Amino acid sequence: MRKRVWVDSRVVVEVRPPWIPRKGQEEVQHKNACDEVVASVRRHVDNVLSVARSDEYASVCEFCASPWTEDSATYNGGCCDRDESNNPSPEAP
Ligand SMILES: [Zn+2]
Predict the structure, then answer these.
(1) How many angstroms is it from 72 CA to the middle of ligand 1?
(2) How far is the CA of 82 from the centre of ligand 1 (A)?
(3) Has residue 1 been placed in a domain?
């Protein structure tokens, strides 16, 4: 039978996104905001062994930005017309 055991505890800090996001700069702005918090924690917070920015990425369709759901790197199940044009085995009309 499965048993749940304690392994570790951590503090998770969510950084406020930029007040005025600039189109196309959201990633850089948010990373910079995170780096500022990391620097502040290093300066002002006691009992911290380490602190670092952690980036998370997601796979999406390059054409319509739908979440990537398929194992294929070139075809996402037909999430949009442009993705469907990459269907390796299109059905006959
Ligand atoms: Zn798509």
Answers:
(1) 13
(2) 7
(3) no
- CA 28 from chain centre, in angstroms, equals 13
Q: How far is the CA of 2 from the centre of ligand 1 (A)?
A: 40
Which residues is 60 bridged to in the sheet?
Answer: 67
Distance 88 CA to ligand 1 centre (A): 15
Q: Residue 86 phi/psi, 5° resolution?
A: -100, 5
Position 64 pLDDT exceeds 70: yes
User: How remote is the CA of residue 51 from the centroid of ligand 1, in Å?
Assistant: 37
Question: Which residues constitute the domain of residue 72?
Answer: 58-93
pLDDT, position 67: 96
Whole-number Å distance, alpha carbon 80 to ligand 1 midpoint, is 4
Q: Is residue 74 part of a domain?
A: yes
Task: Check whether residue 42 and residue 79 sit in a common domain.
Answer: no
Residue 31: inside a domain: yes
Alpha-carbon torsion, ordered 36, 39, 41, 46, to 10 deg: -170
| pLDDT at residue 66 tops 80 | yes
Same domain, 63 and 28: no
